[in-house]
Design brief:
The model has no long low-confidence stretch (mean pLDDT about 80). The protein has a 3-stranded antiparallel β-sheet with strand order 1-2-3, covered by helices on one side. It starts with 14 loop residues before the first helix and ends with a helix. The chain is an alpha+beta fold. Helix 1 crosses helix 2 (about 30-40) and helix 2 crosses helix 3. The chain has helices at about 15-25, 30-40, 45-65, 120-135; strands spanning about 75-85, 90-100, 110-115. The chain has 2 domains: about 15-65; about 75-135, no CATH class.
């Protein structure tokens, strides 16, 4: 087999990865289907792309609700303020709350991330409460 193509693989590009990248860049599903058709020479419907993005959203949801190990050597908490465009609401300033854990062996893990209104003690209380409920 060629070194760059795995056995039984028909494409060099993972259509799901391209679809998700286009979706993350704000391209509509119909427009993304047109772009993939031009790039890959095969017609993809917007329903197919919707199914692909739904799979990614399910995986992200599972990541965000997974159980956490009970023990971490350190937990870093930080908030990053961003301007976010909301449908029908315009641009609003929100904070991405991030929790990063370091295991006793030194391995770093993202414990979670949350997009909430501007940083506050109430927001951090919710973040820490969720980490506690998930087993940390």
């Amino acid at each position: 087999y060629p070194a760059f193509l795995k056995p039984y693989v028909r494409r060099l590009v993972d259509v799901g990865e391209v679809a998700v990248a286009l979706y993350a860049a704000g391209v509509s599903q119909r427009k993304a289907a047109e772009i993939l058709s031009l790039l890959l020479g095969h017609r993809y419907s917007h329903e197919t792309l919707s199914a692909l993005t739904d799979q990614v959203l399910e995986a992200a949801g599972a990541f965000r609700t997974r159980l956490l190990p009970e023990e971490m050597a350190f937990v870093y908490l930080d908030g990053l303020s961003l301007k976010v465009l909301r449908d029908g609401e315009g641009v609003a300033r929100e904070t991405v709350y991030v929790a990063l854990g370091v295991t006793p062996s030194g391995e770093r893990r993202v414990l979670g991330f949350w997009l909430l209104p501007p940083e506050s003690a109430l927001g951090w209380e919710g973040v820490l409460g969720e980490l506690w409920q998930r087993g940390l």
